Amino acid sequence: MPQLPPLTAIRAFEAAARHENFSRAAEELGMTQAGVSYQMKLLEERLGAPLFVRKGRGMELTDLGRRIAPRVSQAFATLGEAFAIARTESDTVLSITAPRTFATNWLAGRLGGFHALRPDLAVRLEVSDTLVDLNASEFDVAIRGAAAPTPGLIGHFLMRMPVTPLASPDFLRRHPLNDPADLLEVPRLSPDDDWWDLWFGSLDHNNRAQPGLRLESQVLEGHAAIAGHGVAILSPPMFQSALDAGLLVQPFAHMATYRHAFWLVYAEHKRNLPKVRALRDWLLAEVKRAAGDDPFGILKPLPPA
């Protein structure tokens, strides 16, 4: 790429050439007339040729200045158009990244409600468990499972992660469960998942390794449980529709709470963006609405770490 003169000097030249007046250029740029004259001196020294000559009490462009002035103005116009496009896209597109289970089982089915409130916004949802750098990426907000908000980001508590065994009615007819210890004798999904340790430990029981399907996400475990392949250890709020439809049943009332909760987070420099504020307000209200009388205790804040 060719080495350019300092941008401040180029900008001063473009304004001075357009007005053919250093004073009016200075007013437009918020500079002094002496400041514009100094920038012109720097630019002319860099080029090795004059761009303005004195005429009476004013200045006029040299032949070289007149040849390059339209191209410089066009270059700034092109830059202005490029940043206008960027601003428009930033104002009208809301980019969200969220972990698989929350995005698939909770958020995606509710985003239509947000779009109804803000039809001017195009919402882009990336389903990924990868943590992106919100201070440097194109994403506006993220949903994250963590014990506390990420340092350096604005964070809003959304909900706890209660966990408990869930199974299909057909599976429970074939494998009656009367006591938590019975779970050790029936097919369980991802039996080495640490959520099983958490749930059994909260009842002073020990989990026991056993053969079984090992799946990589709650989404897959939930589908396998609905299909009757075993008991899954899941977070009920993520499977509320399956529970309401009777596709999954909670055989034991006891629930344990995972150390992480779901948080809405975003970079400090996006705090005041209208689209971010709109999502924040809608999401916090939607979590409370969906929780109803909060049978799973998801709205109770986590204790201090």
TrEMBL record:
It holds the Pfam family HTH_1. Keywords: DNA-binding, Transcription, Transcription regulation. It comes from the Bacteria. Residues 5-62 form the HTH lysR-type domain. InterPro entries: LysR-type_TF_proteobact-type, LysR_HTH_N, LysR_subst-bd, WH-like_DNA-bd_sf, WH_DNA-bd_sf. Belongs to the LysR transcriptional regulatory family. PANTHER family: HTH-TYPE TRANSCRIPTIONAL REGULATOR, HTH-TYPE TRANSCRIPTIONAL REGULATOR TRPI. This is LysR substrate-binding domain-containing protein. It comes from Sphingomonas immobilis.
